[in-house]
Write a structure and sequence with these properties.
about 280 residues, alpha/beta, Nucleotidyltransferase, domain 5, five-stranded mixed β-sheet, about 20% helix
């Protein structure tokens, strides 16, 4: 018997690989800082008594130090794999699971969440993130057509998932060949983190639902030079070359919730490669 564990804020999901079902618990010691990570794992082990498999966490934005300790502590406590699920991937897995649809390679998937829409395409058996945008007020057909072009795919969706109500026939007229599904944001026993742990463990029933990890957004800044990167699939690599002015010796990497500064060597012509990956 192997237990795979998912944590979404103060809810703990424990999936039993023999019974093929998840049980949820209220997690009292949800980690909000470095000092409470071990306490959280101790409570998790008290609920998942047996062999530990994979663990997945849906967390508020956290520093790299917090993420690294969360992953390493999980491995030290006996989990085989530990991963943090970003909110875009969590939304994708939650919505596509509720639809009961198994996406195929080549499928373009639009997910409406309130006034936002996120676009994915399944490639090489995993959904890849392409675009996210916000609609203002009423969404008309011209908005949808422009959004389609902005995705860079310029393809009509094959699957539309929505948690908002559209007028009857509205989406069907725009994308007549698309299948339309609704989903809920409420936490259910088969939540995204629980499904992701099963994907990590190789459970065949859910492997079709996997999605790339996505970094939210970050800025690279040297002096007055800025490069803004948003919604990038991981792993991610980008290189940049720059001429440095006098006094430009600090590279700022600003994420959504914290900033990291790197002191640069003394030079005039500067070349840097930034690599981001999923911690497992």
């Amino acid at each position: 018997m192997v237990f795979h564990v998912g944590v979404s804020h103060y809810t703990l999901f424990v999936y039993d690989d023999i019974k093929k079902e998840a049980t949820n618990f209220v997690l009292k010691a949800f980690a909000e800082d470095l000092s409470t990570i071990d306490l959280m794992y101790e409570e998790i082990k008290s609920k998942a008594i047996g062999e530990l498999g994979c663990a997945c966490f849906s967390m508020f934005p956290a520093s790299n130090d917090f993420r690294k300790k969360l992953v390493q502590a999980g491995l030290d406590f006996g989990f085989k794999k530990v991963q943090i699920l970003d909110y875009r991937s969590e939304l994708y897995i939650r919505a596509i699971f509720q639809s009961k649809y198994k996406p195929k390679n080549g499928d373009v998937i639009w997910i409406f969440q309130g006034d936002q829409c996120h676009v994915w395409k399944k490639e090489n058996n995993t959904a890849k993130y392409y675009y996210g945008g916000i609609f203002q007020d009423f969404i008309d057909e011209k908005d949808l057509e422009k959004f389609k072009i902005d995705t860079k795919l310029n393809e009509l969706p094959d699957i539309i998932l929505s948690n908002i109500k559209f007028e009857d026939g509205y989406l069907e007229n725009f994308a007549p060949h698309a299948q339309n599904f609704s989903y809920s944001n409420q936490i259910i026993n088969s939540s995204a983190v629980s499904i992701k742990t099963q994907i990590m463990a190789g459970v065949s029933d859910v492997l079709d639902l996997d999605a790339n990890a996505v970094v939210d957004y970050f800025f690279l800044k040297i002096g007055n030079k800025n490069d803004v990167l948003m919604g990038k699939n991981l792993p991610f690599t980008q290189s940049m070359r720059s001429k440095l002015e006098e006094g430009e010796n600090i590279l700022e990497i600003k994420f959504s919730n914290h900033t990291e500064n790197i002191e640069l060597p003394t030079c005039i012509d500067f070349f840097i490669t930034l690599k981001l990956r999923v911690l497992i």
